[in-house]
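Hi C.,

You asked whether I'd gotten around to modeling the 70-residue construct. I have! Everything is below, sequence then structure, no commentary in between.
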Amino acid sequence: VDALRSCRGQVVLVDCWMDTCIPCKKGFPRVVAMHQKYAAAGLQLMTLCLSDASDLATQQRVRGFLTQQR
């Protein structure tokens, strides 16, 4: 919520996804590319992973995926 407040007045794309959702992960590079293309014009991107954050293995997979996607 605080992160969204800091973007008040800007266009914000909130991408919700799960570690187990293949279509979500396939589309992720397009979301990143959109951000790179329009960031200078003010587009903000927030990604929200809805996977179980209490599971250590899931945390590692999510971090690895995000690192791979840059």
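If it helps when you're writing up: Strands lie at 12-17, 44-49.

Thanks,
B.
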